[in-house]
Please model this.
Amino acid sequence: MKPKKNPGSPDYPHLVSFVLRVALAVPFLYAAIAATLQPEAWVGFMPYFLRNIFSESLLLGVHSLMNVVLALWLLSGWKTMYAAILSALGLLAIIVVNLGALDIIFRDIGLLLAAISLALLHFKK
Amino acid sequence: MMLTLLAACSPQEQVVQETDEEPVVPEEQNAPNPTETGEEVMPAEHTVTITAAGFEPKTLTVKAGDTVTFVNENSNQHWPASAMHPTHTVYPGSDIQKCGTSEEEDTFDACRGLAQGESFSFIFNEIGTWRYHDHLQTSSTGTIIVE
Model:
């Protein structure tokens, strides 16, 4: 007898996971490269309370490094749930800090939901 | 409209063309003289202050040809520029790529961070609703409505 399929589970979990991981990794890598090549266009997303403590170049450097690490972690497929949770937290922070620029960061809301979906996909009881 | 009237009254437009062609009189030249109607013809000047809370006023309505001056009253640098971040291309003719070029003056873009006390002025000739932002703090935005 064929086991009853959980209605919430996808037919191709590995493929779904792969697509979601790439979907998150690509913008993370893009952001890291773009922030390095054109820092003045990205520093505006950093909140002033951080910029008044740390130098802008340091903040952008850390931001780019974190993005690269997260992108590679997601692509590796290793402990994906934790990578997805970290991605979601990072995206949530970007959205909250830049709510006034919703016409720019609205895409991040989609990415946040993709990260949550990925975390749920890899959640194991 | 005001700008059109001004342009129609400017000396450049009053130069007689020495051609055999029948001169084409713009429709605006048949309009009543603004000075006769008591209508103000001088472009107005407006000020938008930049503080820690952002732009004030957030929305400003001006006439075409008016000048808006953005004054930074905050200790942090601020860079008013046309939407969208980071290209600044929404206002016609504006583009961050023009900063540092001979076309910079024609762009709705301070093209640099304004220190406390510094200002940036721009003449709005294009009618429309123009959103702008602080390039150095993208969540800070404002709107100029040009009528």
Notes: The interface with chain B takes residues 38, 40-45, 48, 51-52, 97-101, 103-104 of chain A (CB under 8 Å). Residues 55 and 61 of chain A are 10 Å apart (CA to CA). The first helix of chain A runs from residue 13 to 37. Chain A has six helices and no strands.
